């Protein structure tokens, strides 16, 4: 099978073309360095199928970065084996993608590709944009000057693709000898001499290697030390006016001169346009500049970015979209779909829901109202331990993970839009301006922003950084840019903060937490670059890509990829963790099984009530009179209780009113009467149930989740977290307080495990908490009953559990920060280990542990007591000065010894 390699500058459209040719789903992104590894696929429309390689984008073939090395080795066919250890084959032809809107810079790489002995075809991409800008390009002229075929295409609009492949298919059959644009003058002679030497040595691509050797290319000099001598002899005689004997610069200059003399003229204004078309083209040419004036403004650029970010979080997480909640309520009752399946879907008491919350509510309603009953019904005949395991254990955890899918996808969609349009590249450019002085380049910022999606490709993307220290430091902070998997932690905890502590909105908390992650990342990066990871930042030579209208197809591919990835994780690694947790939570240290159902207060009450209704004739009469019992039906106690609560509320409301109308007076009398009736029905049940309940839990054999291995383990490690606010300070004996240490631990496997563990534990922990409260004399059975009713409501169980831990909101924030900055998931850790040497990897693990502990502590203490902020700030300033002077004196010393 023939093999074609796609080679071109970053952002020239290689991945778009690749996807178009192969039906693949390579990552398309409007910034450099998105494709770092190569991808493979097959194109089937040629007479025989063709293998296509999508290579990382490169600006030249003189490798400075790992990705340039990959590309060069693949093109030369000198990469003997690939990552799987299979033998690589050489490509039969190169398809050189040239971004026609950036002709000159892109052709620079072309002049180097030409030097290889391999057929090259130019795919002149983005012709749609060229036309839109009112330009035209003489493809034939370029083709004649370079001696290779040139095919205009638009990868995005799928124009010219098949023609390109036909031409490439034909061209690949004819061997081509390398040609160089440096053939003139003394330089040309030298190259020719070296080429002859290489030919004699039977080296493949002699011209290419000759040019590289003359250019003083590092890899080449390494490989052919014996020939370096000839070149350096020559160098002594060679002096260029401008560049002296820097042959690399001389060659680069010669290439650009060739391009501007011979090729630049091929692109001209299209003079066949009507006046209208010409005006539209002019406008389109200047539009991008105009947008840039605003979006990358020196002062407003960053604030605009922050506002955009906030808008995104607001649209995804807010329960009060555009703060219209008050408006709705001011107009009287907010419209609702009470009683219908849409209840609470579009708006709640808080206000209008954001699209993200609507989708999430929909998802939860789907799992709660459709999937869970289906599942429970299917298991109705199973033994209680099995259904407990499957329903409360496995399914609760999975459902918790699923409920976050809509918001994750939505957030990801927004990020993809920013990225694909070309805006993120501009953000990197703006941040580069700020952070360069701290030793962090814009090139490092791109992978960090990618980290918002997933740390793994982001870590691989750091291969675009030529300097090792900057690269390692960047890998370490990438996880702090919260990836999709960490969102559920944020949403769950932020939700608990809002409902338990009366904070106004979830979206603001989530947004601030993301910002906190970013701030920690930059602070850590700056510290590392000043201490253990010193070095000069990589130069940021990237020109801003054109703004592009994001492609629906590319977005779809992104989202689908993300969804697949998430589902796969949910049903493998997370499922395994859930099962493990269930076992640890269901057995005591001496392997006694902890039954799950025993302390279900609601069920117990229902039992006592049925018993009374059937065996106590007075009570039975009462029920019949109140029409709660007839021949074939007994109203469930929970329903009666709810009515009772409503009547009581009416009584209270009306009695507190200053003056009553006659109508209201009547209503009050009536409510009082029925409250008395209810007392007769409700109280005997509550009293009898309490007795039964006490009997159960006071049995010395009685076990619940706080006796489990998991709780024991949680309590052992819990004190470690004291400085973060969820250790000793919330009480190690408390029945619920160990859930944080346990879930922080399960989070090390995958971050989704944190909320999944919460959800999974909530039911049993809440029950256990209820039984513990029963020993407290002040607690009435009614409290327990209500607590249990709430606990059974799936969405609130986690919040209730968190409330019962008695934790402070500051500690919850510290918990988020801890999870955000600690060791990332298994897969990311494995990736990091592959990207650095062993010693650095060990320090990286230590760094993550230390960083999360320190940051959690700083956040907790500062938010809880405020005054520690002053101490931390003073420490930071002191540390800053110390490092500054320490580095200075060390540099001075080094400088002196060098002299
Ligand atoms: P790569 O870095 O070379 O792989 O480039 P990508 O395939 O990721 O594309 C970079 C950007 O250019 C994306 O936003 C694409 O949607 C856009 N793009 C690619 N080809 C075309 C094209 O023919 N026309 C237009 N208008 N945009 C394109
Ligand atoms: Mg790409």
Quick take:
Helices cover 62% and strands 5% of the residues. With 899 residues, the protein is mainly alpha-helical.
Give an overview of the whole structure.
The structure is a single chain. The protein is mainly alpha-helical and 899 residues long. The protein is built from 37 helices and twelve strands. The strands form four sheets. The chain has a six-stranded mixed sheet with strand order 2-3-1-4-5-7, sandwiched between helices. It has a two-stranded antiparallel sheet with strand order 6-8. Strands 9-10 form a two-stranded antiparallel sheet. Strand 4 (93-99), helix 3 and strand 5 (120-125) form a beta-alpha-beta unit. Helix 23 (506-530) crosses helix 34, helix 25 (601-615) packs across helix 26 (617-625) and helix 30 (739-746) packs antiparallel against helix 31. The longest helix has 37 residues, at 662-698. Mean pLDDT is 82; it is low at 80-87 and 330-334. Bound molecules: guanosine-5'-diphosphate (GDP) and magnesium ion. The site of magnesium ion (MG) has 4 residues, from helix 1.
Q: How does the helix and strand content classify structurally?
A: mainly alpha
Provide a count of the helices. Answer: 37
Major beta sheet summary: 6 strands, mixed
Low-confidence stretches: 80-87, 330-334
Q: In order across it, which strands form the biggest sheet?
A: 2-3-1-4-5-7
Helix content: 55-70%
Overall pLDDT confidence: 82
**Content of β-strand:** 5-15%
Number of strands: 12
Distance between the termini: 60 Å
C-alpha Rg, in Å?
Answer: 34 Å
Identify the bound ligands: guanosine-5'-diphosphate, magnesium ion
Kindly report the oligomeric state of this protein.
single chain
Overall geometry: elongated
